[in-house]
Write a structure and sequence with these properties.
The structure is a homodimer.
Chain A (H helix, E strand, L loop, with lengths): L5 E3 L8 H16 L7 E4 L1 H9 L6 H18 L12 E7 L9 E5 L5 H9 L2 H18 L6 H14 L9 H19 L7 H15 L3 H9 L8 E7 L10 E6 L11 E6 L3 H6 L5 E2 L3 H4 L1 H18 L3 E8 L2 E9 L4 H13 L5 H6 L7 H4 L2 E2 L1 H4 L4 E4 L1 E4 L2 E7 L2 H9 L4 E5 L7 H6 L2 E4 L7 H9 L2 E4 L5 E3 L4 E3 L4 E3 L3 E5 L4 E4 L4 E2 L5 H13 L3 E5 L3 H9 L5 E5 H5 L2 H12 L3 H26 L4 E4 L13 H11 L3 H10 L12 H6 L1 H20 L7 E5 L5 H22 L6 E6 L2 H5 L1 H4 L5 E4 L1 H9 L7 H9 L13 H18 L4 E4 L7 H9 L4 E4 L4 H14 L4
Parallel strand pairs in A: 14-15, 15-16, 16-17, 24-25, 24-31, 25-26, 26-27, 27-28, 28-29, 29-30, 30-31
Antiparallel strand pairs in A: 1-2, 2-5, 3-4, 3-5, 6-7, 6-9, 7-8, 9-10, 11-23, 12-22, 13-17, 14-21, 18-19, 19-20, 21-22
Helix pairs in contact in A: 4-5, 5-7, 6-7, 13-20, 20-36, 21-24, 23-24, 24-28, 28-29, 35-36
């Protein structure tokens, strides 16, 4: 077959994708399982490659093959080019191996000429449609194949409409269109100095050349370059006969799902229109009828269709979304694909298909898109009302869910509004730890700045609260309590609605649909747990979050951020005293105030976790995050500390940093003030001993030291920590098991992981910071340009959302390889925000992590992603 | 020799360092080249290791060996333990393979007991000295070997002084000390329930045990842990007979250099004291005499000494610094080492030694510490006046030199002061680009914040101007124009002096010494250039710097920071308009204003460089660095731009970033505003064509795209840049050669260098940012804690000063390895501040860079370091 460059759909199959392209292989597959697909053939990618080798000439042997296939096609379907009654018309479409949506060219209704246009009028009984199609074909062919600007034709159309005083194209009648066709042909003649080709064979050759040429148009080249698709693959060309659903009352068109895509129930679901084309269904001018009614009008066609739906479900082993056309009583299948469905339906269908014996549990697990589970865990806006909703801005989909409320610009105001019984949305430039109570009280959070791992986003996800972050379409003035979009102004108290799953902000209050956990969910998640080998823990900082996490199936806590415990109103005063102390004694006395509180926090957390592992990260953020900003707060603190306002303000300002993310934080604090970590470790260990002594299940704390970049930092801090632990053991005359490890989040730590692993029992990858430092992107500032990066195709994904495998992922792999060299028993996890993102979870599985840790609300998602990863890349 | 654990000095040599320790090997070496070194022996590190294996017991065979050596020693020097007239006294000192200064124990005057103390009194004719030595020995032995707290003895001494109503120890007479000795022995008896050991053998055994034990004292263990010295090496013990220079008029002590350490002139230089001990010379109570006068008093000793100085110079092939003692007319050499010297002397001596045939050129090159050349290039404070100077603070030695001036807190004020003819020092929290003109006008710069690569430091080094940065000892209030140290307040106009080579800040105006480039310097640098294989370029942003760089021997420009061109008063208005433009048209019109100015800049730079390569970095810093801060400046700009103040202020604030180092800068700007780089590239290429057309030597611009982290960024920006270059080529109908490469400064770029090298012709390592992001340290904030890191031994060096080889260096190695895989011709350089730091230059040589680039004033230093690296690690 070396010299075969053209395949009829009968000759291909889905495995021939590299030769026939994606579309061609799929058309062949459907043809071969006996579906009535409109006939056609595919000119291969190999032909395209040779076309370029031949200096863009269609060589004779290829033309011969095409003509042979054309004759076969005419014979098969009983239509022929330029027929006055029932002419053959074809579409010519590109189809490469990798999908390049919209990058290359398509020509429809090829074959129309002065003769066949009459045939089309006759066969459809619609002269206006026929001439309108001819007009459009001339324009499309001239533009795509011959390079004549569209505007040459469109201006004539506009001129005619103006002369006739009409506005819509549809108001032109058949006679108008006939005139227009003649004018269009004149344009062609004037532009190219030759007549518009009446010979369909010539039309076809020129169109095939045009599709081949479009492989190398500038936008396709840029697309391939950015997506690393080779320029040498070439594109296939699909030539397929057109069918028409508007040939009279025995024709029609429709769409159907083999099961209910909203609920998953097993019954045919769809609609059709008699004497119509696909675009009529979409345009919504006529109201389609329910698919079951087709049975009454065309019982044989209906029965055939139902049979086909079963064939398709059995062949593709999934619910199908099928487009069909009936031309003069004959059914054609134009397309079938796995049907889009709600999460609820997805789970129901997958579970049913297992019970029906069509697929096994592993296959069922692969059928549900992990992120779709968000629909089951959070409210969504009602589809119906969304159509009329007014979009005012779009930001990052930072934390899923849908919510509405009145806008407030200060955390205090939100708290007060809530106390008044209002639903409130907190709107800020960016949130800071001081806003925590307002965030708790708010229905949702909207920020103008900050990325997917900004403070607002991280905290909101942890709370399972809807959040749109980094919304650069809005300008927020917290001072004047005004939010501006490009053309509107919103004041305090105005209603808006947030969709945290899409990032869209709507005007006003929109109706919401509450999630329902269907009966199949439990069974499905059991299978997920059976298949999955990687552990799934939660990021949880308090007993409430821990309980929530357990409810969602968490197997432990992978990240307890102790600083969140510091922000509570009742404690922050002690924290501030500790930070602003000028002597060791002052600092120790402030820490003594905090010790019992932290111990109690840990006790309650351990109690909630019932013996499951708990990883506690010691204090991480820069100290000035805890400090008061407003003069009045500084004044209050100065009084409490018995120092002058000026002096305290000086100290507060002295702690400000140019780049706090790269500043005095994490283990660097512990090098300067070892007593802070010693207090925290004492609380961790004392609480664990209390738990043991009170007869609860033993807790095995995993103490995590953040921001280690150098082995000597870890040695130094670990020495301090161990001293304190041993002191507690002596004092209490009791011991507990514990581990000491590090958050692996600094690029240098990854590069020197062999050294660091000699002192660490575990690594927990902090991929937020690893991404920040690996790329050099501030998570709080990158929102400004990352959208543009994704839009321009420079990044496929925001690396704060999905682990950048080639860079940040590579650093993780290096860290694992090096770390295991010196410590083969190293325990490995991830506690960055990526731990709940399906593609990242897959990557974590592939590189051998023992667990991922994520926000409680993402646990089912992470579990499903982990199970899918095991199916795709089994560890054992 | 397997069972030999004790070596007399005659039996060792310098190559036996791992067995004898550093000190023992050196004592042996001196002994063996015939120097009169006080006799002694070394107990090996192997003995120490076995001592621990034997559960800390000195086994019999070892004791036998020690006794044999002791008898040999007594015989050799004609003294014996417990002798009533001329007793043997010894010192017992630790000496490990790697120097661990002050970490282990030393005991002096061992052998003193009730009998030998009389012998010492007799032989020195100084009873007071003998009993004072005995008293001290009891205390030292009891403390070091037996663990009796020193305070037990010191309190008795204090008591006696109080009773006698005297203040100084020296006021006690011999009788007092005899009483004290008895009391000390009682303490020993009471504490340990046994008599103070009178047997010197017993004293020695206990002391050897004590030194062995001190190997594992906590501070030694911590020191080894931090410096990665194995715990298993053990320490040697050196037992050496004591000699006394205070035995009468035929005794004495002194120090001499074989050449003049200030000028390098070849004559003996030193001083001595008759009837004195080493500490008398140091204490400065008596004034020593010039060494040449010794000839008159003890001609034979003097001749012997002169002969020895020649022996030593010939043996060590370098100028020696020699300590000697004369005991009863006999000369002893206590120590010799390569003498410390000024840079001027260092070069003179090295060049002379070559001419004398003692060493070759490569050896001469190795003799001068590259950083010492700073002395030749910048003024220093006069040694004599420094003694009385008052130190008020210490910061980072950010840019070398010494200067004095009146302090001013605002750039404007400095400019005005200079106009009045004053010498002014700019004192700021931290400088910003707005301060440039003040920095130019200032004698020196002092900042309270910021590290070695902060704005102040980098700019000052570029200008060769003295700067002390990150001086956390001072608090600066720019508003009230006050600088505070712990206990003093300085107002505007007060004089201070800065030493940029040490980081010390002095009160008042201090006399300075201007540098002199001696006659040997040129010859020396010629040899450096002969040996060196790595290129040395300069970081220079304008023709003046370029000329300075060429004068110092630069071979090209490795980094021209185009943004520095943007800051000039006359241009910044256009830059601001460009940044704050809201439409593409506005931005382009502002860029059109900048184009001719930039083109002229490049033209002049190229002209100055006379055909040498010039690497131009496209715009790098975050745009808001260029923006006005003060309301009045914003107002002025608003008027010029014809927009409202409020609106403009909004825009300015909107550009602020939380972490500007990780923000919207470098190539990220070019993704958002491609027209900026297009203007810059147009200026670069047009200027190069102008140069060519005017008949100057062709310039081959190397266009450097900063902050690339991902291959797609480079592809995108390079496409834009190439389009503009080709446009210029077409317009001018002429071409020039050029390269396009990237600054390699983002960790992710290093990790994915294989991808990036497919589009880059060169990598220039930006190790400032690579260090910032690799460690996660903000260069502007890390000053706060990095000092502490170095003090606590966590880091040996500030990684912003010297490349961190294990981490940042490893990233560079990875980048080179990966990059060469896909682009074997990749050109490699460095343009970070490390490019002028000798150890970093060595590393750059080792990993194969083609060139380093540094501030003009560091070029001789970098060249010398590169030459030394080639000697140590020849590339060919």
């Amino acid at each position: 077959m070396e010299n075969k460059y053209v395949y009829s759909f009968h000759e291909g199959k889905k495995e021939m994708k590299s030769l026939l392209g994606g579309k061609g292989a799929n058309l062949a597959e459907m043809t071969n399982i006996g579906l009535p697909v409109p006939s056609g053939f595919t000119i291969t990618t190999a032909a395209c490659i040779r076309y370029y080798d031949e200096n863009k000439i269609l060589w004779n042997e290829l033309l011969d093959e095409i003509h042979d296939q054309l004759m076969g096609l005419e014979k098969r379907i009983g239509k022929s080019f330029s027929d006055e009654n029932n002419p053959l018309l074809v579409s010519v479409r590109s189809g490469s191996v990798f999908s390049m949506p919209g990058m290359m060219d398509t020509i429809l209704n090829l074959g129309l000429n002065d003769i066949s246009v009459k045939g089309l009028a006759n066969s459809t009984g619609n002269e206006r449609f026929a001439y309108d199609s001819y007009r459009r074909f001339i324009q499309m062919f001239s533009d795509v194949a011959m390079g004549i600007p569209k505007v040459r034709f469109e201006s004539l159309l506009e001129e005619m409409k103006e002369n006739k005083g009409i506005i819509e194209d549809t108001d032109l009648n058949a006679e108008d269109l006939k005139v227009l066709v003649e004018k269009y042909k004149e344009v062609y003649l004037n532009e190219l100095n030759e007549e518009f080709p009446q010979d369909p064979i010539k039309q076809l050759e020129l169109s095939i050349k045009a599709v081949f040429d479009s492989w190398n148009n500038p936008r396709a080249k840029v697309y391939r370059r950015l997506h690393n698709i080779s320029d040498n693959l070439g594109t296939a060309v699909n030539v397929q006969s057109m069918v028409f659903g508007n040939m009279g009352d025995t024709s029609g068109t429709g769409v159907a799902f083999t099961r209910n895509p909203a609920t998953g129930e097993n019954h045919l679901f769809g609609e059709y229109l008699i004497n119509a084309q696909g675009e009529d269904v979409v345009a919504g001018i006529r109201t389609p009828d329910e698919i079951s009614h087709l049975k009454d009008i065309m019982p044989e066609v209906y029965d055939e269709f139902v049979k086909i739906t079963h064939t398709l479900e059995n062949h593709y082993k999934d619910m199908q979304d099928i487009e069909f056309t009936i031309e003069n009583g004959k059914l054609y299948i134009l397309q079938t694909r796995n049907g889009k469905r709600t999460a609820q339906a997805g789970i129901r269908v997958a579970v049913d298909l297992v019970h029906e014996g069509l697929i096994n549990k592993e296959e069922a697990i692969m059928r549900v898109e992990p992120n779709q589970l968000n629909q089951l865990l959070h409210p969504t806006f009602a589809e119906s009302t969304l159509k009329e909703a007014i979009i005012i801005a779009k930001g990052l989909a930072a934390s899923p869910g849908a919510t509405s409320g009145k806008i407030y610009f200060h955390a205090d105001d939100v708290v007060e509004a809530k106390a008044r019984g209002e639903r409130a949305i907190l709107v800020r430039q960016e949130t800071s730890p001081e806003d925590i109570e307002g965030m708790v009280a708010a229905e949702g959070i909207l920020t103008a700045r900050g990325g997917m791992t900004s403070h607002a986003a991280v905290v909101a996800r942890g709370m399972g609260k809807c959040c749109v972050a980094g919304c650069s379409d809005i300008r927020v003035s917290e001072e004047t309590k005004i939010m501006r979009t490009k053309d509107q102004t919103f004041n305090e108290g105005d209603f808006i609605s947030l969709d945290g799953s899409t990032g869209i902000v709507y005007k006003g209050d929109i109706e919401k649909v509450q999630p329902t956990l269907g009966g199949s969910f439990g069974e499905f998640m059991e299978w997920v747990d059976e298949v999955r080998v990687m552990g799934v823990r939660a990021n949880a900082d308090n007993p409430k979050d821990a309980a929530q996490a357990l409810e969602f199936g968490a197997e432990g806590i992978g990240l307890c951020r102790t600083e969140h415990m510091f922000f509570e109103e009742t404690r922050v005063m002690s924290v501030r005293k500790m930070i602003l102390a000028t002597t060791l004694e002052e600092r120790k006395s402030a820490l003594d105030e905090l010790l019992p509180v932290q111990r109690q926090d840990f006790y309650e957390l351990y109690e909630a976790m019932e013996g499951k592992p708990v990883t506690v990260r010691l204090l991480d953020p820069p100290l000035h995050e805890f400090l008061p900003v407003k003069d009045e707060d500084i004044k209050e603190l100065a009084e409490a500390m018995n120092v002058s306002f000026d002096d305290l303000k000086d100290r507060v300002e002295g702690l400000a940093e140019f780049n706090p993310m790269l500043g005095h934080r994490g283990c660097r604090l512990a090098v300067t003030y070892p007593e802070i970590y010693r207090m925290q470790v004492r609380a961790i260990i004392e609480a664990a001993i209390d738990i043991k002594e009170k007869g609860h299940e033993d807790i095995y704390p995993e103490i995590m030291i953040p921001l280690i970049g150098h082995i000597n930092e870890l040695k130094y801090v670990k020495d301090e920590v161990l001293k304190e632990i041993n002191l507690v053991f002596e004092e209490r005359n009791n011991t507990v098991k514990y581990m000491i490890g590090t958050m692996l989040e600094v690029p240098r730590a990854a590069i020197t992981a062999d050294e660091i692993a000699t002192e660490a029992e575990f690594f927990s990858f902090g991929t937020n910071d690893l991404t920040q430092m690996g790329f050099g992107f501030s998570r709080d500032d990158a929102g400004k340009f990352l959208n543009e990066y994704v839009e321009k195709g420079i990044f496929e994904k925001d690396p704060f959302q999905e682990i950048d495998r080639a860079g940040v992922g590579k650093l993780m792999e290096i860290a694992i390889e090096y770390g295991r060299k010196t410590n083969p028993n190293l325990k490995l996890g991830i506690c960055g925000e990526h731990g709940g993102e399906p593609n990242s979870v897959e990557f974590c599985h592939q590189i051998g992590l023992h667990y991922v840790s994520c926000s409680p609300f993402r646990i089912p998602i992470a579990k499903l992603a982990a199970a899918q990863a095991e199916v795709n890349y089994p560890r054992s």
